Every structure is written in C-alpha cells, then in structure tokens.
Amino acid sequence: KTKAFIFDLDGVIVDTAKYHFLAWQKLAVSLGITFTHEDNEQLKGVSRVRSLELILGLGNVEATEAQKEEWLVQKNEDYLGYINKMDDSEILPDVMKVLNFLKENNQPIILGSASKNARPILEKVNILHYFDDIVDGNDVSNAKPDPEVFLVGAKKANQTNENSIVFEDSVAGVQAANVAGMISVGIGEASVLNEAKYNFNDFTEISEEFLLELINQ
Ligand code: B16
Ligand code: MG
C-alpha cells in the first residue's frame, strides 16, 4: 500500500526553534520587550507575521505596517545567519532511520511546514532529496491550525486525507491534521500534544513495526 507521510520541519526534523528564539529575542530586547523561552513555545508552528504580532503584544508595542515589515526582515536576516551554519549533525535523533525506512518501502515523503525557509534548511542538512514534494509557508495562505498546508501535501502525493499521516510537534499542527481527517502523530510532550492520535517523545521511540502498521492499515 501507499500512504502520504507528511513531516513538519521545525521541531520534527530539526530543532530550529532555538534559532527562532535567538533571533526574536534580539528584536524583542531592542524594543524593550521581555521575551522568554516560555513565550517562544507559543510561537511553534505559528507564521512569522503572527509571531511578530504576539511578541509586540507582550510589550504592548504598536507599530506601522512599514515598521513591522522592517522588523520581520531584520529578524529573518538574523535567523538565516544561524541557519547558514547548520549541517546534518542537527537532524534530530532517528529521523534518518524513519526517512530511510519509508523510502525503502516506496512511501511518498512530503514536507508540510509553515516556514518560508524550509528549502534552504533542508538543503543545509542535506536531506532535500528525500522529499517527493515540499509544501511550505510560500505555498499557502492559511496558517496552522488551518489544514491547508497538509491538504496541499496530500494532494501532491495523490493520496486521500484518510491515507495521510502527519508528524507534528505543535498543538496547532496536530489540530490541522485532525481537522483534515488525517492521522496525527505528535512528536514531543504527550500532555501538550494530547489531541494527537499517537504520541512519541521523538523518533527513537518509533519502530519499524509501527511504520508498517501505518502503511498497511
Ligand atoms: P519562517 P514548522 C514554523 O515551522 C515554526 O515552528 C515557527 O516557529 C515559525 O515562526 C514558522 O515556521 C515560520 O518560519 O520565519 O522561517 O518562515 O514548525 O511549521 O516547520
Ligand atoms: Mg513544528
């Protein structure tokens, strides 16, 4: 059988949340806004524009559209500074084991990310060629929990939603997969991702038996 295996990027394949944090924090500090690691949790899976709005909200800072645009560019330049130093050592544990197993079993592998930097990141960590299709923040207009990014991904793989499996680390992403009628696999704290159909702390907990079950069910 063939299914669509859709992977989120940040927090599932690589831990870029730490770089988002550093870049957002630099901006926040320059604006006199206190921005903590805890605040950063709220930005997971959230678009760049929405992230800025959330941060400005923390400091009750108001700004013109032009000013916001400038801050977004600035943040992304800082973020790309970190991304450019990435290599394949930053791929999260056992992600390659899962990708290789799916490839051996001829399963479509799709990226479904909110990030507009998805391609350069996959290139930096040398796994761009694993993906049959990439759907990212450049392709969709509705952010998770809207299911658009996953719906487009399933379509590209010529699979129904029911036959699509989504690996996600964010609450919004799990909700998006569920809304689409897809099988959601939460990667991270089960107590946080309690809406997911299956939960694992990371890919080291995902067995080949489990993947075969997903393929054959
Ligand atoms: P960018 P994902 C998301 O990626 C991140 O989790 C989120 O923190 C970030 O703001 C968003 O991408 C946009 O990223 O600024 O690179 O366009 O988890 O959906 O892969
Ligand atoms: Mg994520």
List the keywords:
alpha/beta, 9 helices, 11% strand, binds 1,6-di-O-phosphono-beta-D-glucopyranose, binds magnesium ion
> In which range does the helix fraction lie?
40-55%
DSSP summary: helix tally? 9
Mean pLDDT: 97
> How many runs of DSSP E, i.e. beta strands?
6
- Report how far apart the termini are: 9 Å
- Element-by-element helix/strand order: EHHHHHEHEHEHEEH
Largest sheet at a glance?
6 strands, parallel
Structural class: alpha/beta
Strand content: 5-15%
Shape call: globular
Q: Outline the low-pLDDT stretches.
A: none
Strand order of the largest sheet: 3-2-1-4-5-6
Q: What compounds sit in this structure?
A: 1,6-di-O-phosphono-beta-D-glucopyranose, magnesium ion
Rg, alpha carbons: 17 Å
Describe the overall structure.
This protein is α/β, with parallel strands linked by helices and 217 residues long. It has helices spanning 17-30, 37-41, 48-58, 65-83, 95-104, 118-124, 148-156, 171-179, 208-216; strands at residues 4-7, 109-112, 133-135, 164-168, 183-187, 198-200. The chain has a six-stranded parallel β-sheet with strand order 3-2-1-4-5-6. The mean pLDDT is 97. The protein binds 1,6-di-O-phosphono-beta-D-glucopyranose and magnesium ion.
Summed up:
The chain has 217 residues and is α/β, with parallel strands linked by helices. Helix content is 43%, strand content 11%. The chain has helices at 17-30, 37-41, 48-58, 65-83, 95-104, 118-124, 148-156, 171-179, 208-216, and strands at 4-7, 109-112, 133-135, 164-168, 183-187, 198-200.
